[in-house]
Amino acid sequence: MLGRGLKLSNVKVFFDGGCPLCIKEINHYQSVQNKYKIQNLYWQDISTGELDDLTKHKVTYEDAMTEMHVIEYKEESNHVYKGVESFLKVWERLPYYRMLAILTKSVPGVKPITSWMYRKWVLYRLRTDPRLQFCTAERCKPKM
Q1: 34 lies in a domain?
Q2: What is the pLDDT of residue 96?
Q3: What PANTHER family does this protein's entry cite (predicted)?
Q4: What percent of the chain has pLDDT over 70?
Q5: pTM, rounded to two decimals
Q6: Please, what is the Cα angle at 122 between 108 and 71, to 5 degrees?
């Protein structure tokens, strides 16, 4: 539950479990989730090659390895988020991070700067992670 009785929908986070920084961050989010017994947040390591939900939504392995993706499951339809938008969906569900999500979305300039920083991280990761050699071409470059 979120303040005023609003219930957030379920989300599944797709992350690269072979990326040391990524897994460190995901482990932190999971520890917060477990501490506060949050039920509407699910995790899937895509480095195992398991992409069933993503492929249903026309997200390729290359796209998924390029940026973090989240699927928000709602009664009427599902929606795929990627990059900073996916982090916002996670943060909305975690105590303390909710405020970060609100600030990122509402303070002018914060979301574009955060998106720019994330894209820079993605480009660095694509150049330096030997597992992502299939991303040396333009096809894995994050969408601006």
Answers
A1: yes
A2: 93
A3: OS04G0668800 PROTEIN (PTHR34290:SF2), SI:CH73-390P7.2 (PTHR34290)
A4: 88
A5: 0.86
A6: 75
